[in-house]
Amino acid sequence: MSDMDMNRRNFLKTSVGAAAVAIAPGMLLYSVAQGKSEGASSKVRWGMLIDTNQCKPGCNDCVTACNNENGLSGETKPTDSQWIRKIDIKDISTGREISLPMMCQHCEHPPCVDVCPTNASMKRADGIVLVDKHRCIGCRYCMMACPYKARSFVHEPLTGQNPDVPRGKGTVESCTLCVHRIDVGGKSACSEACPNKAIMFGDLNDANSEISRKVHSVASVQVRADLRLNPGVRYQGL
Amino acid sequence: MAATPTLESLHFKNRLYWLLLAAGGLVAAAGMYAVHMMESHGHIITGMNNQIVWGMPHVFAIFLIVAASGVLNVASIGSVFGKAIYKARAPLASLLSIAMLVGGLTVLMLDLGRPDRIIVAATNYNLRSVFAWNVLLYSGMVGLVVVYLWTMMERRMNPYNKIAGIGVFVWRFVLTTGTGLIFAFLTARQAYGSALLPPMFIVLSFAWGMAVFHLVQTSIYMWNEKEIDPSILSRKKHLLGVFVLGSLYMVATYYFTNAYFAHQQGFERFILLDGGIYPGLFWWGYFLLGNIVPLALLYAPGIRRDRWAALAALLIILGGFALLYVFIIGGQAWPLNMFPGYEVSSTFADGQISAYSPSIYELLFGLGGLSIAFLITTVSVRVLNFMPQDKPYIAD
To answer: Using H for helix, E for strand and C for coil, what is the string for chain A?
Structure first.
């Protein structure tokens, strides 16, 4: 074998080795960044059942928990984001008063997803309605279309964000059902924070889940059921 | 009136032209400054908020886009229906359409939360979204009207004029339907969600477009020290009057049908009777100044001068802005009806009338869009021949 052949062989070996060393960390980081390889499953439908009889007027614990979890300021100026809010309602004819939390209802047929020009508003296979912050152009059509006024627009530059919950000035945002917790086996922060256990979180598709059994045994309604959006959030005692 | 131009008068006009350009440029620059401020500070510096999500910029943008479609009526009557006096005015109508579309689209795009992501809007289409359709409809319209102008202004392209004219005629109906559908598809809001809105926007576009056309035409004739032939003026005035009556009918039908539904009566009371600025703008701004006074100026016997018709056109335009303000902002100020039969309150303005006061930045921004349309028109009219060239004998 000539010297030239040996040189060539060594050169090729070194090149392949160098290339492997160069690419490997990138591949490793890429696989770490991808996290779990499997996506959301359509066998699951995440939802919540809210018992308004247990929801105390004046209690704001679910709102505070949401703000802390998602890095929201908690201020309530018209330009501040509110992913969840407490609504007090009073029956005009009977005077009966009810307090309840309102947030994105994670509809099966979400109007926000229909109207979004860039597909930034989207519904995951497991029923969670989200905004892709990299795709949202901030046209606010989804805010016009949402029957629950569940969405907020980021009007100012943001500081001190929670790394698990990316947000961005000039984009629209709303309750994510704490998707970052769900993806590691947790549940929404509001449901955990409620002192009266008025918010039950779970899989509506699993016949054996607590929420499914409850939905089958007690009377519950969907807000604006007339629009036939089939929200994943249901209310008891309305 | 048609005096021979002297050297002095030409010098004066030359200076006036540059002065107009400078004034328009100044307003456009102020608009750019407002955009820069919105970019760096966010929408916090506007009057818009989480309740009134579309504000003053949308009033300007939608007026410009609707009028841009309607102004092409002049062209369609010429190219599609073959009327000579309209055909002579089709190039000017097309120019105005392009100018207003560009002005309106600029405002719409720069008002986005992330205008830097315009490429995202151009490359990701959700085909269920009427906004995505409109991105195609608006940009396609500009392209189609440019081709249409080409078939008129380049002699060799003249044989294609008819087909281009029909294309424009169809396209602009679809376009204004698309603009109306933006609101018609909002089923959850009481102010919108009506199938009446697309045809209403189409008829409004006829009136507003014709008014813009008439105002610009009068200015061009004045500039050239000419007067419109009285027979042509009378036909134009009559058509403008018919369009104003037609649009008033559509608006009245929309509000009447709403007032008939029990669940809409609270909203109608708010817009038409006790909603503060909104009933004021509707009745004084839109109804009286935008319809009744212009109709009187157009039809009253003895008022024949073209200046009066131009004033009528100006009032119709201002009335259009008043109606859009009531429609867009008043419609959002009224709360969503999530719990019928209940009194509702929250930290997020549920159950309350939302307040809105436009900031100076929004106003400058909207006027900036208007000035872009003005600049395109002024420069084009100066460098190309858009003066209507009527034949000595009008057959139709």
So the answer is: CCHHHHHHHHHHHHHHHHHHHHHHHHHHHHHHHHCCCCCCCCCCCEEEEEECCCCCCCCCHHHHHHHHHHCCCCCCCCCCCCCEEEEEEEECCCCCEEEEEEECCCCCCCHHHHHCCCCCEEECCCCCEEECCCCCCCCCHHHHHCCCCCCEECCCCCCCCCCCCCCCCCCEECCCCCHHHHCCCCCCHHHHHCCCCCEEEEECCCCCCHHHHHHHHCCEECCCHHHCCCCCEEEECC
